[in-house]
Specification:
Blueprint (H helix, E strand, L loop, with lengths): L5 E5 L4 H10 L4 E6 L17 E5 L5 H8 L4 E4 L6 H6 L1 H22 L4 E5 L8 E5 L16 H20 L3 E6 L2 E2 L8 H11 L3 E4 L5 E3 L1 E2 H13 L7 E4 L5 E3 H11 L6 E4 L8 E4 L2 H7 L7 H13 L3
Helix pairs in contact: 1-7, 2-4, 4-5, 6-8, 6-10
Length: 317
């Protein structure tokens, strides 16, 4: 793992950002830049840590972001509007934060002159509704124009191009990561695992869109943090895009809900809710490139990851 660096994480108070900061702070200075729209830092001690500087700010504020980036050798840009429901309600803001926020982060990195690695967080949704063992070199698929569901994916694909073009044109050591369905302790928002576990522990019904036959590969939080840390270290990562996920942990949404009920010994019931909007029906990554270039290998299988997550939530609900 990297040591003795100053690392800026935009969106660093979020689920993945907080988990990453907890690992990095062992041997590095961490600057967390976040507007606290969602806050997974509560109870972690990060805000009081002597090697953490927390800045409450918005990536749409170029001056504040540029100031936060001063002296940082690594920048991990995670700030975005996330969650299907949130994106559909705020498609303009979603695109604005992705496009302008990433531009501001890249400009700050380019202007600082000391950045050794810039990681742009993209999304697996750039592959569209159907992606089976999709590789980074496969053609991405844009959703129908005017359908708010796809504004997040479209804007994230644009930020990938922008980050990699800063590398090509200016030599900025940038790369992109496409995360596939991350879950685990401290998750906030509307993710399926978070929703199912919280409701299962309360004895409430678990809501599933349509028949629950949608297929996903689930990646435990520790595994994606490992992938990010490897991307910060390996020279071959620069100028590349990487799928980070766990294709071995692939189940339908229905199976996921049933497994959570079993592992949590919950008496909750499943309820099927009509969802008349476009959805991702199949999403399974090919991670051969990450294995070869980064040495990445997910270690936590689905049952173990769900048990760890249920245990964490049970202590807080």
């Amino acid at each position: 793992m990297i040591e003795g660096k100053r690392v800026l994480i935009t969106g660093g108070a979020g689920f993945i950002g907080t988990s990453l900061a907890l690992r990095l702070v062992e041997a590095n200075e961490v600057v967390i830049f976040d507007n606290l729209h969602r806050n997974a830092m509560a109870g972690t001690g990060l805000e009081e840590h002597p090697r953490v500087r927390f800045i409450r700010g918005d990536v749409l504020d170029a001056a504040a972001l540029t100031e936060a980036a001063q002296g940082c050798q690594h920048i991990i840009h995670m700030a975005s509007i996330a969650g299907v429901d949130t994106v559909m309600k705020n498609p303009v803001l979603t695109m604005k934060v992705s496009l302008l926020g990433t531009y501001h982060a890249l400009e700050a990195a380019h202007a600082s002159g000391v950045v050794e690695r810039f990681i742009d967080f993209s999304t697996s949704e750039v592959f569209g509704r159907y992606a089976f063992r999709a590789t980074e070199g496969d053609a991405t698929e844009l959703g129908a124009v005017g359908e708010a569901r796809w504004t997040y994916a479209v804007s994230k694909l644009a930020t990938e191009h922008l980050a990699l073009n800063y590398h090509k044109q200016y030599g900025l050591p940038a790369l992109s990561i496409r995360p596939f369905n991350i879950y685990g302790p401290r998750q906030v928002g509307s993710g399926a695992v978070h929703h199912f576990i919280v409701r299962a522990l309360r004895g409430e019904n678990l809501s599933i869109h349509n028949d629950g036959a949608q297929i996903r590969s689930w990646c435990y939080i520790d595994d994606i943090v490992d992938g990010i840390l490897l991307a910060l270290e390996r020279e071959g990562a620069v100028g590349q895009a990487f799928n980070i996920g766990n294709p071995r942990s692939t189940v339908t949404i229905h199976q996921l809900a049933r497994e959570i009920l079993r592992l949590s010994s919950s008496s909750s019931r499943l309820e099927y809710v009509p969802w008349n909007f476009p959805d991702v029906e199949l999403r399974v990554p090919n991670i051969d490139k990450a294995r070869t270039v980064l040495g990445y290998e997910p270690c936590i299988d689905l049952e173990e990851g769900l048990l760890r997550t249920i245990y964490w939530y049970r202590g807080r609900h």
